[in-house]
Amino acid sequence: MSVAKIIEINASSKTSVEDAVRSGLKKVSETVKGIQGAWINETKVVTDGEGNITEWRVNLRVTFLVS
Fold it and tell me: Which InterPro entries match (predicted)?
């Protein structure tokens, strides 16, 4: 029988949503082993005064197996 746990993390990138997800998962994988997947719970942007996107932010739910 397998047991999975879900943690929630926030990550950001100046480039794209994909880069934010990638960097968040890479950082989590430094301490969490057995990552099975993740889903984007929320996407946000930071803008400058003229409405240009300056940063992408994601809230991820990461699933991993507990041994």
Answer: Dodecin, Dodecin-like, Dodecin-like_sf, FERM_domain
